[in-house]
Specification:
21% strand; alpha/beta; Rossmann fold; 2 domains; 8 helices
């Protein structure tokens, strides 16, 4: 059973920016399930999409892999021969636990876990690339360059899967979706204090884009097909096919 997330349960006098440190890694499975609507559905579908798009003798990238949930889902589903998964995260605590999780399951699909900044990773011969709630933590100035590098490294017909929290230009809709997300967290046992403190901690480190911004950027880069395939409140996932 996952350790319960209580990081923000008590008042924190000096609330710093949210970081993916040892404390977060310890409770991450519980945190993500109770905080992100539809997370399990997204993870399952990433595996199904990887099964469909992964090709023989290619690379699959999980950029910002955290504890490896998307990597595990893809590894379970991929049927392509000689397919190599590269899972990358810049948090030492996440990488350590990711390796442990992956070692608990046997598979014919090889996985390499790398501790690194995803902006510095070479993308080549890729049939599938996943950014599962990762892009939103990068500086907005770095996002297009990373996506361009991914596009260049994708094989024709390859797929990029991007899961994100979204912002909405319509203020009424945006506020309602934020309120519904907070209701979701309350229903999962988070207190008003936890919701408030975590929101403050994330304010400077997670800056979401709108769905239109994502689509326009991906189309500009050259992807031939871009669509949202899942959305629940202000969270969702889209694919872009080269």
């Amino acid at each position: 059973m996952a350790n319960r997330d209580s990081i923000f349960a008590a008042p924190i006098e000096k609330l710093g920016d949210f970081t993916f440190d040892e404390n977060v890694a310890e409770v991450f499975p519980d945190m993500i399930q109770r905080s992100v609507p539809g997370y399990s559905n997204i993870i399952s579908a990433i595996g199904m999409l990887a099964e469909r798009f992964a090709s023989d003798d290619s690379h699959v990238y999980d950029l910002g892999c955290s504890l490896g949930a998307a990597t595990l889902s893809m590894r379970r589903h991929i049927r392509a021969e000689n397919c190599h998964i590269v899972a990358v995260d810049n948090s030492p605590a996440m990488v350590e636990r990711c390796k442990l999780h992956l070692s608990a399951y046997r598979s014919d699909t090889d996985v390499e876990v790398i501790e690194a900044d995803i902006r510095h990773i070479d993308i080549n011969n890729a049939s599938v690339v996943v950014l599962n709630f990762t892009l939103q933590f990068l500086s907005p100035d770095d996002r297009e360059a990373l996506l361009e590098k991914i596009y260049s490294g994708l094989k024709p017909g390859g797929i990029l899967i991007i899961s994100e929290k979204y912002s909405f230009g319509d203020e009424t809709a945006n506020d309602l979706l934020i309120d519904l997300h907070h209701d979701f967290k309350r229903a999962n046992g988070y207190s008003e204090l936890e919701i408030s403190q975590k929101r403050s901690a994330l304010e400077n480190v997670m800056r979401p884009d709108s769905i239109d911004c994502h689509k326009q950027r991906l189309n500009k880069i050259g992807f031939s097909s871009v669509a949202v395939w899942f959305q629940c409140f202000n969270f969702g996932s889209m694919f872009a096919i080269k």
